[in-house]
């Protein structure tokens, strides 16, 4: 199943992004894996969902952000493509990494592949 999903994403020129999500000021932590062309697409989807005036993250985040796969984790994941906070409409956000951080992560992944 993962092979098929990976093939579809490749054909659509999408990749799976890993977002570290803090729910309600440390109540729970999640890893959200979502396929998109780039992180701006993920951020646009996130903002579309959480920007509704009556938004409140009740239940689990996957009840609201239905794309992708969610996994509850502890401690907060350190190796993510971006980070987010989800709670209410006025305090939910998704942070995109700076170019420097993104470049450093890409270089680190290349170095790890060369060592393997």
Secondary structure topology:
Elements: H1 2-11, E1 15-23, E2 28-36, H2 39-50, E3 69-73, E4 82-86, E5 93-95, H3 99-115
Parallel strand pairs: 1-4
Antiparallel strand pairs: 1-2, 2-3, 4-5
Keywords:
3 helices, alpha+beta
Description:
This protein has 116 residues and is α+β, with helices and mostly antiparallel strands. It has one domain (2-115). 34% of the residues lie in helices and 27% in strands. A five-stranded mixed beta sheet has the order 3-2-1-4-5. The chain is globular and about 50 Å long.
Summarize the entry for a quick read.
The chain is built from 3 helices and 5 strands, in the order H-E-E-H-E-E-E-H. By secondary structure, the protein is of the alpha+beta class.
Largest sheet: 5 strands, mixed
User: How many domains would you count in the coordinates?
Assistant: 1
Average pLDDT confidence is 81
Strand order of the largest sheet: 3-2-1-4-5
Radius of gyration from CA coordinates: 15 Å
Number of DSSP helices?
A: 3
Distance between the termini: 26 Å
What global shape is seen?
Answer: globular
Report the strand count: 5
Assign the structural class, choosing from mainly alpha, mainly beta, alpha/beta, alpha+beta, or little secondary structure.
alpha+beta
């Amino acid at each position: 199943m993962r092979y098929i999903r990976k093939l579809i994403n490749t054909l659509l020129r999408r990749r799976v992004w890993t977002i570290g999500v803090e729910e309600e000021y440390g109540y729970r932590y999640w890893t959200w894996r979502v396929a998109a062309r780039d992180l701006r697409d993920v951020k646009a989807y996130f903002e579309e969902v959480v920007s509704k005036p009556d938004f409140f993250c009740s239940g689990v985040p996957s009840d609201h952000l239905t794309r992708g796969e969610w996994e509850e984790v502890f401690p907060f994941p350190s190796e993510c493509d971006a980070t987010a906070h989800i709670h209410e409409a006025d305090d939910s956000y998704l942070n995109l990494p700076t170019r420097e951080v993104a470049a450093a992560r890409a270089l680190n992944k290349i170095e790890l592949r060369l060592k393997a």
